[in-house]
Amino acid sequence: MNISVDTNVLIRAVLQDDPVQGAAAARIMSEASLIAISLPCLCEFVWVLRRGAKLSVSEVGQSIRDLLEAENVAMNRPAVEAGLAMLEAGGDFADGVIAHEGRWLGGELFYSFDKDAVALLTKIGQPADIPD
Fold first, then answer.
1. What is the arithmetic mean of pLDDT over 30-45?
2. One Pfam match, by short name (predicted)?
């Protein structure tokens, strides 16, 4: 069966912090022919792993890379890689995803009042600026 999953299913499958839900999440994900994981789900996933579970950037990055490498997982790979680049540069995964999707939709310059996000995007070669 082809499925899509909510963030809480991914979290339970990765953290195994609830025996019943963790087992159910692992089972449905291993049995699925295709697991569709949306960008909002991944943004929440990263937020929960970093803030709630207190995992390191490298641990979170590896969790996402494991999903990218799984044969039965479908994600917007370029957007996920943009999010990973931002995360690994010290920023927020979601900012990388948002900037990428904006470019994909035709935006030429990413604007944000988040000075750190703008600086990191510029550092990794993405056009970004702060509104005057």
1. 97
2. PIN
